[in-house]
Design a protein that fits this description.
It is a single chain. About 85% of the residues lie in helices and about 0% in strands. The protein is globular and about 50 Å long.
Length: about 180
Amino acid sequence: SQKEFIFLVALLTAMVAMSIDTMLPAIGAIANEFGVRDPNDRQYIIGFFFGGLTVGTLIYGPISDTTGRKPAIFAGLLFYLAGTVLCMLATSFEMLLAGRALQGFGAASPCIVSMDMVRDGQSGDAMARIMSFVMMVFMLVPILAPSVGQLALYVGSWRMIFAGFLVIAIVAAIFLEL
């Protein structure tokens, strides 16, 4: 149905904002755990995600045109899941940064290709209506995500944030398959 499609596209596009903004409260805890001395090095947690996202953005559009939308999104979700697991199990700051880059690379696919799905199936007013709902969700996520990250820190460690990312990616993959 159209409501399910809007939910799926909103979830897929929101993954990028969630992956960035949920981490903000945890940056200090992560840096402390790994003994990152220079405060400026903490920003790499976000920067490496953006680096992976940038590379993925250039790659997934053409891939989705040749392989189809769903295979491209599933490939991105697999990279995202692999990066998330790498971050959860990180034993060093460098390992965490590698996971964040992989996570960003994977997150590019659901974000970019889901927009292609909307353009493929809708036009005119219907496309504008769907995009309005999707953008509303996309605008709410950066407002709420830091609170979710802070809540995870109250309940457990920063690794719980990555567990949440795992759940969201798995739900998105299941929902995409249905």
